[in-house]
Amino acid sequence: MIRLDSVQRRYVSEEVETTALYDVDLAVETGEFVAIMGPSGCGKSTLLNILGTVDRPTGGRYRFGEQELAALAEPALARFRAETLGFVFQSFNLIDELTVEENVALGLAYRGSRAQARRARVAEAMDRVGIAHRSRHYPHQLSGGQQQRAAIARAIVGDPKLILADEPTGNLDTENGAQVMNILAGLNEGGATIVMVTHSPSHADMAKRRIDMLDGRVIASALRAI
Amino acid sequence: MNRFALLSLYRSLTRHKLYAALNVGGLAVGIAVFLVLALYVRFETGFETWLPRHDQVYLVQTEWHIPDSPFNGAFPNTMGGLLDQMREDFPGLVGTRIRGGEKGGSVLRGGGATTEDIAQVDPNFFRVFDLPMLSGRGDTALASPASALISETAARKYFGTSDPIGQTLTIAVDSPQVYRVAGVFRDLPQDTELQFSVLLPLPKTVPNPYWYHWGSTSISTYLRFATAADARSFAQKLPPFIDRRGFKDLGKDAHKTVNLTLLPIARQHLEPQGQQSASRKITVATLGIVGLLTLLIAIINYVNLATARAGLRAREVAIRKVLGADRGALIRQFLGEAVLMVAVAALGGLILAELGLPLVNAAGGLSLTIPYAEIVPALIGLTLLVGIVAGAYPALLLSSFPAASVLASARAPGGGRAGTRMRETLVVVQFGLAIAFMIGTFVLVAQTRHVRNADLGFRRDGLLLVTSLSDSNVTPAQAHAVLAAMRTLPGITAVGIANQMAGGSGTNNADNVPLPGKPGNGPSLRWIEAGQGFFDVYGTKPIAGRLFDDAHGSDDGTKRAKGVAENIVITRKAVATLGFRTPADAVGKTVGGSNPLTIIGVVPDLRFLSPRLPNDPTYYVYKRDLPSDPVASLRVSGDPRAILASVRTLWQQMVPQVPFDGDTADARLGRLYQADDRATRLFAIGAGLAVLIGCVGLWGLASFNTQRRVKEIGIRKTLGASSGDIVRLLIGQFLRPVMIANLLAWPLAFVAMRTWLAGFDDRVALSPLYFGAATLLAVAIAVLTVIGQSRRASRAAPAWAMRHE
Lengths: 226, 805
Prior knowledge:
CATH class of chain A: Alpha Beta
Helix content of chain B: 40-55%
Largest sheet of chain B: 7 strands, mixed
Number of helices of chain A: 7
Oligomer: heterodimer
Number of domains of chain B: 4
Helix content of chain A: 25-40%
Distance between the termini of chain A: 23 Å
Structural class of chain B: alpha+beta
């Protein structure tokens, strides 16, 4: 499904040049649940951003299915994100001015789907993560766990081919963290492909494959022993 | 904009009420100021456009070119018989004359007389001025010498609810005559220079001996041409026509002395007369610019606050990008937001303008109304324009935020260093304009105060002016009798007559005075016929020599034999003009060539005319009996209003056939200052609001910046900075653009105010104090605006501040 060949990411400012990723090769197959681990600054989030097309590699190739993404222009990438990807962030990143329901629906709005068609899918997505009872609430009226569940609902509402989660439990307590992980595992069981960055070994253990990174390189890739 | 963008905008505005109020409120006030001043400009530049085919109608101007004459320049009047001569030389020419107009005659009823705006016109008046008629036919009525057309207001005034058609009115212009009402025309609108409520046919016999005298100006002549090219081609034929027809009165090359020009009637209102400066045009242009700049300041506010807040929305932008919004969609969203905000502000501006219009009308002596049918489409256009202009930069900035880095860092971008520089530049522009406005207001107020209090050479209070004495229907016997009776009225201490008076009502004369031993016609001086008591009333004391005195029989110029020198009193300005070193040198000398004038005394200059006009060197001659076209000035002690009432009663008893026309000097002089007072008030209102909008913007920006720097403040305090250091830091940051703004404001205000003051002969100096005061005020406003927030921020506990994001 995903194929990265020698992907590099270099940041160049006036005085310093920093390399966040060195020649990363990675393949993710449909239905996989991949956890990326590594110390802070090792390039996990950069890799996830490149997978999510919100950052562009400075070298190498990124193929999604049969599509070469590095060559796409920004509007096409925006359409790709709207139709193919779902994002979950550590800090939830819900829009403060929109209710839970509206935040979830926003995931569909950029696909151009009609309000009528959206309603049922939004309700279903909220139901799946157990946030339907808070649909009319604003983000600041929810607990961290509830906000993250709303964010997951937004990520899955469009049935994305790939869910990218960047430390989805980083801002949550143990109980809420476990709940969120269970939801993600459940989604994976249901067929969703997930790539997740995490610091938590126990959460990484819930993925089917674990990738370790250090200093911008993938140093190990191992399937979970079942 | 999709539904979610609208929703999030609405909720963001309702959640950040203060920000919304500042942003929308500031813009609304800016739009209101712009709207009101645009209405004013539209009114002032729209004169006569209500008239059907106004673009075909031209006023014939008389243009004087006499060396040194105070009367040079173009005037809106011509010789009475000009149109007759033009018709003879240019068959088929369409034109009409208007004789009289404002207070052009009186209507006699029940033994008394009422002043009325009466104009005498040619029978084909309606071929030029197609006035809308309510009843009767205008185009045929004026062919009959005893027919009158009256306005709807005059019809109500004289005939109440009964049908005026066929009824009679006794009207006195040169002498009383009975007229039959043949039609009623719709009242003239406010935006017209035409002033009449009664139209009469011009009499067949020539009304005055100067009717065909080239150089005289007694009526207005209007011509109609099918096209502008026809008018231009006619204008080219005028110089030979003037030379041919004016030869007898003006000599060879007559057009070099008196030229005739054509002025499109729509331009007449703002066209300066004679040596007047183009003050009306300047006033209209200035207020138009104030409106535009106020709107600009409001737009700057919007852009500043929107880009400053952009950082707070960076995360939202990033999320939208992650969810699939492309840059175009985001630009459309933010432009849409801007247009929507401007639309709300425009609606608010319209409401404010409607609410504020009565105040503005009172301050500016106007009667502006909002023509919704025109304003609403214009406002929609303005909304789109301002929305796009104001929204473009924030839209481009916001949509350019890279999603990955925004989501990766807790720090919100605000456009970086470029954004800060941009905002600072905008604050400089905003405060530069605000400071320039303040300087302008100070200078305008100082000048309008100055003209009200300046020494005119006489005391303004306790002075009454009676102009009805010059009415041709007042016989000399009546004039003498009424003047004698006035002298006996209680409270009147002196009565003086002349053909001029304070406020400029009367006759304006000027002549060249040849100087002995010098070639040429000599300098041009104004001259005034002074009668008995004139200098007493004005409290004029001689600087050198003496005043006119009945004990010196030769002072009276009434029955002077030709060639005998006439005694004159000259003004101080005339001393140098006539070539004398000191006033004492002038006394006893004779000037004037073949019309000898002997100087018997020198008096201070008296300023009777507008402070905008030069106070020309003048000489006085003495007419012991009655000056021609006399007007009376009365010095009174006690309540001038009460004494004026008793003068009025006396007049109505003794000269009932002529309406009384008199006022206090204060009121009469006040009319000279009225236009500038109004302009000053409108300017001050516009400028005050512009400064207010600027402050609102600065406050919003300061509040935002302080919030952004909370963490930095915490770090600084941890490192040992005191609250005072923090306040100084934050205030200093805002004072810098305000101080730099002076570099923009000072030259701008200097040039603008020098141009405006140049329109006054009697003017204040452009003192640096105005500039310094405006700068100090701006600094004080800026400090007061930001000090509250700075102090609050400086008091925050460092530990809390450093956790703040």
